[in-house]
Amino acid sequence: GLIDAGKSNFLTNVIYEYIPPLKREIDFIILTHPDLDHIEGILGLMKNFKIKSIYITKSLKNNELIKTVFEEIKSREIKTYYLNENNDFKINNFEFNIFNPTKDTDFNTDANELSIGIEISFNSCSIYTAGDLGSSGELKTFSKLKDKNIEILKVGHHGSKTSTSNEFISILDPLVAIISSGLNNSYNHPHKEVISTLSENNVKILNTQTEKSIEIIFNSGYLSLKYNNNHSYLKCL
What we know:
The chain has 237 residues and is α/β, with parallel strands linked by helices. The chain is 25% helix and 27% strand. It has helices at residues 10-15, 36-39, 42-48, 64-75, 135-140, 142-145, 166-172, 192-200, 208-211, and strands at residues 2-3, 25-26, 29-30, 50-51, 53-56, 79-82, 89-91, 94-100, 117-122, 125-129, 152-154, 176-179, 204-207, 214-218, 222-227, 230-235. The strands form four sheets. A seven-stranded mixed sheet has the order 7-8-9-10-11-12-13. A four-stranded parallel sheet has the order 1-3-5-6, with no helix packed on it. The two termini are 24 Å apart.
């Protein structure tokens, strides 16, 4: 499965390395919210792979790209599910726990605040990601996160200072933070404030600008991380 589809056809080209030539199927894609850099790539994916299901969040945001994406999803009859905190689900041995949007979310709000916040767990190992959800939205997840052990955090909003507050990191207490941001991007992501927050909380930082492809493999009781020429292991709590 995939979480978000990136821009243009970049992701389509990358995942050819991971899916065997005779199995051009993707079990599911979670689209955290409808910004271009999160959904545009699904157009190429739908042309090159059979996608079994799509999980998305409701949003009133609308433009030509969003219209095109949803027209393609409908024409290909891909099963589509709208998620909120009541829609936890399980695929094989993986559990998907939804923290955002909440059941009382105002869908007239900014699209970033509607981002799907989700914990993905396999046995005792967990990863948390929440699209471009801001700091205030991250704080709302505390009631469900406070009893969790999260080994890996996919840093919010590509490392923007609008996410990843010190309070959030202190409670989440991840071992590793992964920042996905383009090299020399116009927003200067990741912001130095976020790097400082993670460093001060003794969180190991991996950034796609330097590590490029970061592979995470779930095992029983530990996570395996591969990037560049490094291969390390995390024991799950």
